[in-house]
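User: Could you check the structure of this?
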Amino acid sequence: MYLNTIANSLGLNKSRKRVGRGIGSGKGKTAGRGHKGQKSRAGGYHKVGFEGGQMPLYRRLPKRGFMSLSSNETVSLRSKDLSNISESVINIETLRQYNLISLRVKSVRIYKSVNSTLPNNITIQDIYLTKGVKEILVSAAT
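Assistant: Sure, the predicted structure tokens are below.
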């Protein structure tokens, strides 16, 4: 094989459509540019989103937030979800083992759910607790 014998596959390079070569070519007369207007003229250029001086749509609409890359790092759980856990020490690793949170989660917050009870001798480590859950834990300990 020599460099001067290498060729592209058949059909890879299409010849460009020659416009403005008569009515029989299918791209004659206006050469596919339509009639009149800025885009039909030579050098007729405008920016993407330009609306002829009118306030563009992307500036007329209100700005509305963004998708945070760290949004899934904190998760809230109901206290009812902890009732299925049989271990005495509950931390983030325990919640991952029981598939209550994903691997991406870095912090967990537990809030009180209706008619929820927690086991008596349970220890919670490295997890934020709301006031209601703390009351449940204190009442379960006594």
